[in-house]
Amino acid sequence: MKVLVTIVGVAISVGVFSALWVGVNLMFNKATKDWPLFSTLVGALLGFILFVVLHGNELLINPLDEQMDQSWIGRFIAFIWLPAIAAAVGGTVGWFLGRIDDPSTRLAIGIGTGVVAALVIAFMLRDGSGVITIGDGRETEPERSYLPAFRPFALANWTIIGGAVGAGWATLRKSNLIRTVAIFGSIGWLIGAFAASQLGTGPRIAAIIACLVPGLALGYVVGTSKIPNIVGAARIDEGARPWIFVGPAVFFIFVALIAPTILTLVLSFQNADSTEFVGLENYGTALSDPANFDTANWTNIFTSRIFILGLILFAIGLLLAMALGRQTGHTAQVDPPSGAIGISGIALVFFAIVTTLRGTIVNNLWWVFAVTLIATSLGLAIAVLADGVRFERVAKSIVFMPLAISFVGASVVWRLVYQSRDPSQSQTGAMNAAWVAIGRTTSDSSIGQIIWGILLVGAVLGFAYAAIRTLSNDVNMAVLYSVLGLIPIYLLYRLATGGFGALGERNGEFRGEPIQTLSEGPWNNFFLMIVLIWVQTGFAMVILSAAIKAVPGEFIEAAKIDGANDSDIFWRITIPQITPTIIVVVTTVIVLVMKVFDIVRVMTNGNFGTNVLANAMYAESFQFRNVGVGSTLAILLFLSVIPVMVYNIRKQQKEIA
Amino acid sequence: MATPVINEVPGDADAALGNDGPPNDMRKGGTGSTTGARLHGLLTRVPLWFIVLIWAIPSLGLFINSFRDRQAQNQSGWWRVVPSDLTISNYDTVLSASSTASMTDSVLNSLGIAIPATIIPIAVAAFAAYGFAWIDFKGRNWLFIATISLLAIPLQVALLPLLKLYVGGAHVTVPFTERTLTLIPDWDLQGSLTAVWLTHTGFAMPFAIFLLHNYISGLPRDIFESARIDGADHFTIFTKLVLPLSVPVLAAFAIFQFLWAWNDYLIALTMIGSNADNFPTTIRVANLSGDFGRNAFLLPSAAFIQAFIPLIVFFSLQRFFVKGLLAGSVKG
Fold first, then answer.
1. Cα-flanking dihedrals φ and ψ of residue A613, to 5°?
2. How far apart are CA B261 and CA A17, in angstroms?
3. B65 touching A (Cβ < 8 Å)
4. CA of A14, closest CA in chain B: separation in Å?
5. CA B88 to CA A419: how far, in whole Å?
């Protein structure tokens, strides 16, 4: 059953869309090939649309409303009969106008149609004497009256305004003065008659006057038109065709993106249930709420360990750059290794700040910074490492695969990895199992500790060797290796003072609990970020890989002949060549991370201090029903991507110019 | 995943994916079989496969656990799996319609969303891309730039008003009167699949037009001119010439859009609300995940059913997928 419903639903939606579009195209093909047919179709369509709008808004009396049964088909017939008749009449008129050349006959047909249509509408306008059935037919409500009051002043004012606009238009566009004034004057008249007057208060005769004048004027416009020659017909075709092609897309963009964005902006200036304007109050709330931006503990930044470590690294990088700069005559020579040390320093300082200042907005900044930096650099690293390696395709496919999985799926995958249980039980999450295993081997005075010790001493020696080797010709690399070598030395120190990792229960003793990955703040945020890094690294890798492979081989050959080694080639040729691509990747990831939602929603639902803007926006708008603040958060997201939008517009303008 | 930035990314899909030949030393500093070169090779391969292993472990673990029953999952990690443990009972439970966590209906719902949400945007965007590329009209550049500027727009900004549109239609109040005029009637779309794929269609537009326009505007001018001289109208040129020539880019976008619509969570969550009959797979899995405890052991199998179609698409059509990824930022 469900299968059938799905298939039928898909078929109807796709079929209706394509049939409509092909139909309009075929219709306009007829303009140059078969004018009478085209004219007939246009007449039928105009009549149909006019009465669908009037009837659909229940402006007209509908005698069939109470006759038809309230089934789906009955209501459809009760609705469609009038537009159908209008289409038939419009089609007939169009057919005549498409064939008859004689100007006086045409004028008669045009004015006659205008008058008849005006009288039909005027006499069918609801006057408040009946009831309207709503919904499934059980509910009724007293009918409204749409008969306008007769107000000559308003009528005259608006008609003059309309006529003046029409005259201006005709002068500017060099079109026929009388016809243009008639069209715009009619619009002015209709505004004056219906919009600028009290509806539902006048006599029927006022409605007749209100309709008859525009009917006459528009009938005159239609009646004075001529059957176009082939050039004129082609011009009609050419005028309409772009909009047939572009129109549907413009419609969707307007309805789904532009209009809602404007409405959201308006909602953000209104209160929770959008009943009154509150100015910038929502923005004040959003930015000062400690849940969004909490600066209470800012002094703790300076005492945090990673802050100090970050400063030290940054200082080393800076000193190195300045030392090298003295050799080359610059203030500071930023080389990749000194740059890498400096950037790690900055990153640590940033991490210290975002882990101390808390709140939704801070979290978003952290996400953007961490995911973009790590996913892009890891993707670049994998692209370089895998380049030309045996089974390159397999390796890349595995890294790339998470991109095909939904964020919801990725969250489920990582939830299993992150699972943590009571230390007395065996861990079922891979991460904590490894953490506990490390804890067991490092804290026992057993084989495990010896193995760890050998591994770490080996690592220290390796780094030391590398540092000494490079010391002779490259101070830069030597410092980088020395700094990296501090990591195993630190681990050795931890090993000597009781080990690292979680032990769990061992002879009735506990030491080092398993990590409460998702509930222990503020680092639970980072564990969520890892999920997105897992997904996005593949994206960065594939795009950067394509760019790396496109670096001309001659450049590399030439550099090799000049005695450049691998790292020179990478830093001085590959990286500058692929910088535009790196910018694409970074911007793409930033825009994507900025609106991260699914992962946070599924894994923590924003609890434990992990909320992000998109999740807060969803919760405020659809759960707490605070539409004002919800819209404000959405607008904040929007503001954050405006630089990218401006960049795109500039770029495209350049391309067109 | 669509790239919201305009820039050129050089290179082609095959190169990006890599080819499984013997290692090629052309781009490497190493020369032949010296010890240095071998050490160098080792230094590249060890970190590479270490990272790949880390990337594979999470999904592998979930996959293995999806074949272990509740008790096994609770007692030990997936790496302790023994062949006698393996069972497909989880998949049975998750797929059977009687179960509270049935995935069968939601797979159909996801298809009912993803198929129209793929076909209709392709059609609409192809019309527009052709219009922008090959039909001259006033305001064309302006309109195209406006479309492109929306590439980066976060969809959150449109969700609330769109939901209101589906709930009650669109109405404007006529100035100076208290009457409202209905622009779009209330079609009772709240909670329906139609609401979801209509939303997808709208949101997909900027990227789809951008991607297809890049390709279609790059088609050789001669063919259009000679077709026009032969008296072909735009409709004929579009259906007989442009569509057949654009199959690669249409396929690339189709895969993209299908995966995006299939994997979407936010739009479905907003538009479907609490109408459980219409839940797509992502909502089902997410709800199962929120329901700690009783049904947690079904989560791995449900997640794999959710990911099954994307993975098939991914592994069989990877080249097109990467092509789309690259084309998103390549100028035609």
1. -55, -50
2. 19
3. yes
4. 6
5. 23
Neighbours of A310 (CB within 10 A): 21
| pLDDT of B29 above 70 | no
Q: Tens of pLDDT along A121-158?
A: 888 888 777 666 655 555 666 777 788 887 888 888 88
Which of B:253-282 have CB within 8 Å of A? 259, 262-266, 269-270, 282
Pick the range with the lowest mean pLDDT from A91-100, A520-529, B73-82, B114-123: B73-82
Nearest-by-Cβ selection for A426 from B76, B149, B162: B76
- Relative to beta strand A509-511, strand A504-506 is antiparallel
Residue-level pLDDT at A140: 67
Q: Which of A249, A260, A426 sits opposite B158 (nearest CB)?
A: A260
- φ, ψ for residue A121, nearest 5 deg: -65, -45
For residue A351, the number of C-alpha atoms closer than 13 Å in the C-beta half-sphere is: 23
Residues in chain A with CB shorter than 8 Å from the CB of B314 are 401, 403-404
Q: How many residues does chain B have?
A: 332
Cβ of A399 and B29 within 8 Å?
Answer: no
User: A297: distance to nearest CA of chain B, Å?
Assistant: 31
- Distances in Å between the Cα of A654 and the Cα atoms of A418, A647, A650, A651, B153 are 48, 11, 6, 5, 21
- ipTM, two decimals, is 0.89
What is the least distance, in Å, from the CA of B291 to any CA of chain A? 11
> Do the chains contact at B10 and A652, CB–CB below 8 Å?
no
- Predicted pLDDT at A506: 53
* Top-level class of domain B101-327: mainly alpha
A200 φ, ψ to 5°? 85, 10
Q: By CA distance, what is A537's nearest residue in B?
A: B55
Query: In this structure, what token pair is assigned to residue A92?
Result: 């007939």
Which of A267, A408, A547 lies nearest to residue B265, judging by beta carbons? A408
Residue of B256, B278, B327, B300 whose CA lies nearest to B87: B300
> Contact A428/B77, CB-based, under 8 Å?
yes
| Token code pair at residue A435 | 């953490």
Q: Measuring CA to CA, which residue among A255, A233, A53 is closest to residue B124?
A: A255
Question: Rounded to an integer, what distance in angstroms lies between the CA atom of residue A201 and that of residue B98?
Answer: 60
> Are B263 and A405 inside 8 Å of each other by CB?
yes
Contact between residue A449 and residue A540 where contact means Cβ atoms under 8 Å apart = no
Residue B58: pLDDT over 80: yes
Of A388, A547, A588, the CB nearest to B23: A388
Distance CA B124, CA B109 (A): 23
Question: Within an 8 Å CB–CB cutoff, is residue A174 touching chain B?
Answer: no
Q: Going by C-beta distance under 8 Å and a sequence separation of 6 or more, which residues neighbour residue A19? A: none
Position with higher pLDDT, A290 vs A410: A410
Contact residues, chain A, for B326 at CB < 8 Å: 542-543, 546
Please report, for chain A, the start and end positions of each structural domain, with discontinuous segments joined by +: 420-516
How many CB pairs below 8 Å do chains A and B form together?
438
For residue A93, the Cα-to-chain-centroid distance in whole angstroms is 47
- Does the pLDDT of residue B7 top 70, yes or no? no
Give per-residue burial for A394-426: e unless 16+ CB within 10 Å, then b.
Answer: ebbbbbbbbbbbbbbbbbbbbbbbbbbbebeee
Sort out which chain B residues have CB atoms less than 8 A from A14's CB and list them: 115-116, 119-120
**Can you read off the two tokens belonging to residue A102?**
């004689």
